[in-house]
Specification:
This protein has 96 residues and is an alpha+beta fold. It has one domain: Alpha-Beta Plaits. Helix content is 29%, strand content 40%. Strands 4-1-3-2-5 form a 5-stranded mixed sheet. β2 and β3 form a beta hairpin. α2 runs antiparallel to α3. The longest helix has 12 residues. The radius of gyration is 13 Å and the shape is globular. The termini are far apart.
Length: 96
């Protein structure tokens, strides 16, 4: 069990641009679920989307890359990423 968490990483992401009202959160959830990533995503009052991704390094990197495109209707201007310690998220959800 301990070895499992050592192989897992966490990325905290802030996405700006046209990312609210374009199914960005739902698409993030679906993509994260496909990749086996745990965490959450939510809209911020300033128009950005915030998310936390936990999983294997490869899967988390793929998810961060996905954020640069996002949902088909999104127009992503910038993605800020902060890497941190794995916190043990379980499942992936949309936070309100």
């Amino acid at each position: 069990m301990a070895a499992d968490s050592e192989d897992r990483v966490r990325a905290h992401v802030f996405v700006s641009g046209t990312v609210q009202g374009v199914y960005y959160r739902a698409n993030t959830r679906d993509t994260a679920t496909e990749l086996g990533i745990d965490g959450w995503v939510r809209n911020l009052p300033d128009g950005r989307v915030e998310a936390a991704f936990e999983g294997s390094e490869d899967a988390v990197e793929e998810m961060v890359e996905w954020c640069h495109e996002g949902s088909p209707a999104a127009d992503v201007a910038d993605v800020e990423v902060e890497y941190g310690d794995y916190e043990g998220e379980d499942g992936f959800r949309i936070r309100r």
